[in-house]
Structure formats: C-alpha cells, structure tokens
Amino acid sequence: MVLVHHTGKGATKELRGHSSLFAALDPAVEVSRDGERREWQVAKSKDGQDGDEQPFKLQIETLGTDGYGDAVTSCVVVRDLVKKAGPFSTPGAPVTCPPGRPAI
Question: What is the separation of C-alpha 14 from the centre of its chain, rounded to a whole number of angstroms?
C-alpha cells in the first residue's frame, strides 16, 4: 500500500498530524521542487540507507482530446541517467569503472 501525505509549511516540514505516523512507516520518500527541478529523497528506510536523492523533471504528455476538444494530459518523470562519477568507493560498484568518468 502507498500512502501520500503532506508535510507542514514550517522550516522543519514534518508530517502533519500525530508524531507516531513517521515512526510507523517502513520507508518514507520526500519530494521537493525548486522551479522546474524536482527531487525525491529517502527520508527514512527501514532496511536501507537514508538520504539517497535523485533529481527529476516532469514532462507533460498529451494523451488525446475530450468530448469538448480540450487536450487530455498527464505527465511522465524524466531523469538524467548519466551521473557524474566520483571515486568509485560505492559498495558494489564494478572495479572496471574508471574514476571521475560518467557512468550509467
């Protein structure tokens, strides 16, 4: 099951409602936006690492038109699959990856 919940508007941006809500979640992913750029970040992961973040953009796609001739639209997530590589000290990274080069 997926639960969508909104954060508060203050500086801490904690979940609205009872404080036990966050504690009851196994994973929690926060989505933020700065203009056209959006980013998701792992705020909490029961069995993984917190803090992983990935930028993305939303692209509007026209699916067709409705009975009035107006466009029916939706959006898709667009991500840049090429990341700048740093030193490959990430666990599980292939030893054949050259340091400092883009990798997919």
Answer: 17
